Amino acid sequence: MLRDHARELGRKFPILTKMYDAFQHESGQVISGDMPLIQIENRLTTVGRLHFPSSLRGNSPYSWAVRGVFEELRAYTRRKLGDVTGAERIYVARFDAGTRRHIVNESDLATALEAKGFQIVVPGQSQDYLTEMATFMNAKLIVGLTGAGLTNLAFAPSGSNVVELIPDNYRNDCYMLLCNILGINYAVDVLYDMVSENPDPHQCEWRIDVDAFVAYLSALNLI
Q: Considering its fold, how many domains does the chain have in total?
C-alpha cells in the first residue's frame, strides 16, 4: 500500500523500523522492496512527515493489507526456492524462550506430538528465514503456545488449522484475529495448571496435560 502511494506521488519514502533479528530484517527488506529501509535505535527520531498504519485488526477495513503482506512473502519464497514441500503438521516450540510463558513439560509435549507426525520448529533458531517460511506453506495443522513465533501460521494455506495454547492469565486474541483474516480454522486450549506464579504474566510457568491435549486434537479430528 505504501509502495503504491509512493508510485502515485513519484517518490520513495524511507521506512523506519526497529529490527531485532536477522530474519526480521530480511522480511522487512522483502516487504519494503525498493523503498529505503532504515533501522532505528532506542533514541528520539525526528522526521518532517510521518505515515503510520491504521489498525489492522480483524474488523478493520485494512485487513486486506495483512493478506497482501503474507501473499507477497509467500511469492518471494517460491521465487527463491521454487516448489516448496513443507511439513503438514507443525509444533511451534519455545525451547529458546527461557521462563517467558514457559511450559515446564514442553519437551514431553513435543515428544508426544512428534510421535503423531509433527515437525518441531523453533522459529528463528532451527532454520534460515526462507526455509522457515517454506516449512509452514503446506501446513495443515499448526500447534503452539501464544508467542511471536506463532505468526508463522500466516504462511499456511487458507483452510488449514491452528490450535493455540493460551495461559489462563494472558489471553491475547491476536492470532485468532489473524486466522480470521487469512481464512484459517482456529481452536484454543487454555492452560490452567500454573506451577510458578509471578506478578508479570509473561514470567509464569505452566504444565500441560499431554495425554489430554493429544486426546483434544483427536476429538477435533485433527490427528
A: 2
